Amino acid sequence: MSLAGCSSKKASSTDPGTAATGVFDFNGTLATAKQDQGTDTSTTIPSLGDKAAGTGQEIVVQSGGKTIDIRNVDEPPWTQSIALAKLVIAGLH
User: Which of these, 23, 51, 74, 91, could form a disulfide with 80 (CB 3.0-4.6 Å)?
Assistant: First the structure.
């Protein structure tokens, strides 16, 4: 797993990691995550950022105007991905 940090470009879906950016909106990033995971469904993740959802091995979180995309870390219930998202959110503030 790698941490891509803040970026204006979404990292490749084949590379594990994280991207935090204001360029990509939550809904667009979630739509891309669903496409990457080969599904039309996602699961809301409560109490994480302003809003969050997961699909397959990818979670998308919006917090403070930034969209965080974490992929290829783990599968539902995304325990490790959620912990990583919380670290990224803390680093954004």
Answer: 74
